[in-house]
Amino acid sequence: MKGSTQRRVFGWVSIIWFTAAIAVSHGLELQTVSQATARCGENVTLTCNVSSSRLDIKYFSWHKNKSLCQYDSQHDDPKVKCEYIDEPLPQSLTLTLLNVMPSDQGKYLCKLRSRHGMTSNTTDVKVQDCLETSGYNRNESYAECWFNGVYSGGGSVRWSQGELNFTAPAFYQKEEMDHHGRYNILSQLDVQKGNLNQPYTCSLWMPSTSKALCSHELHMVKKLKGSSESMVTLQWICLIMEIIMVTCMT
Ligand SMILES: *[C@@H]1O[C@H](CO)[C@@H](O)[C@H](O)[C@H]1NC(C)=O
Ligand SMILES: *[C@@H]1O[C@H](CO)[C@@H](O)[C@H](O)[C@H]1NC(C)=O
Ligand SMILES: *[C@@H]1O[C@H](CO)[C@@H](O)[C@H](O)[C@H]1NC(C)=O
Ligand SMILES: *[C@@H]1O[C@H](CO)[C@@H](O)[C@H](O)[C@H]1NC(C)=O
Ligand SMILES: *[C@@H]1O[C@H](CO)[C@@H](O)[C@H](O)[C@H]1NC(C)=O
Ligand SMILES: *[C@@H]1O[C@H](CO)[C@@H](O)[C@H](O)[C@H]1NC(C)=O
């Protein structure tokens, strides 16, 4: 009994050892970047390189829940492009995600099977800095800013006037997911809180980058006693902090 267990263990150890030895001798490894970060709307390219001498490939694909791209077959998903390169080495499979959205986030798995065994590696895709449209409104009592198609998680609106920041009680926020994983924010500030002679600023704050992605400057309407309502002067500034795809519009 004991002898047969030992033999079995020995057998398994040998098999594992032998398999490992083959994989090592062929340097069978897939090289991927472990993480890729992109802005909303960008194209993201994921490369999977076979680090070995030429292999007789049986199966080579990029997956995320389902197969997105295979080395030997056409794919028809319009959201991705797929390219297999056999020559020159390294043999590689490249998946390009077009116009990425938060819903494209997650782990992408590159899988390879050949005569020498099976191996895989992953790339984790993160998407940030999403903003589709934005704008504002104001009257004598409220200043209001809205940002639609926003991501990343925890994105919020901050209000300030000069050095002064306004806090939660004067602040209203609504979140709504769209099918791309983005949401809309509307924020209202009760302007009794500040000084109507100075402009207010509302900013879309992104916790992932610790930056304001977009800001609007609101000049308030002051009601003058005894005079007709003064012409509204309205100005806006939209600051886009880096070279980006994001649009910030009124
Ligand atoms: C996955 O890719 C990384 C980076 O190229 C590499 O260091 C690692 O060894 C790979 N893992 C496997 C199992 O191939
Ligand atoms: C794959 O190989 C190409 C060509 O050698 C190289 O430019 C690229 O950086 C490699 N990619 C990875 C993820 O290792
Ligand atoms: C993404 O790729 C598509 C198709 O190749 C191209 O039309 C588009 O301009 C690219 N977008 C960006 C932001 O590079
Ligand atoms: C897709 O795969 C991820 C892990 O990569 C998992 O967390 C998620 O639940 C899967 N989604 C579906 C719909 O199977
Ligand atoms: C000012 O705007 C707020 C929010 O849009 C609205 O609820 C309020 O009725 C408006 N007040 C006046 C005086 O127009
Ligand atoms: C207001 O908030 C900004 C960050 O949004 C911060 O840098 C600044 O110090 C704050 N000012 C005051 C007076 O708290």
Radius of gyration equals: 28 Å
Apparent shape = elongated
Distance between the termini: 80 Å
CATH superfamily assignment of the largest domain? Immunoglobulins
Please identify the oligomeric state.
Answer: single chain
Associated small molecules: 2-acetamido-2-deoxy-beta-D-glucopyranose
Biggest beta-sheet profile: 5 strands, mixed
CATH topology of the largest domain: Immunoglobulin-like
Describe the strand arrangement of the main beta sheet, using strand numbers.
2-9-8-4-5
Outline the low-pLDDT stretches. 15-25, 168-173, 224-247
Give the helices and strands as they follow along the chain. Answer: HEEEEEEEEEEEEEEEE
Number of helical segments? Answer: 1
Return the average pLDDT rounded to an integer.
77
- The CATH class name of the largest domain reads Mainly Beta
CATH architecture of the largest domain: Sandwich
Q: Kindly estimate the percentage of residues that lie in beta strands according to DSSP.
A: 35-45%
Overview in brief:
It comes from Champsocephalus esox (pike icefish). The chain has 250 residues and is mainly β.
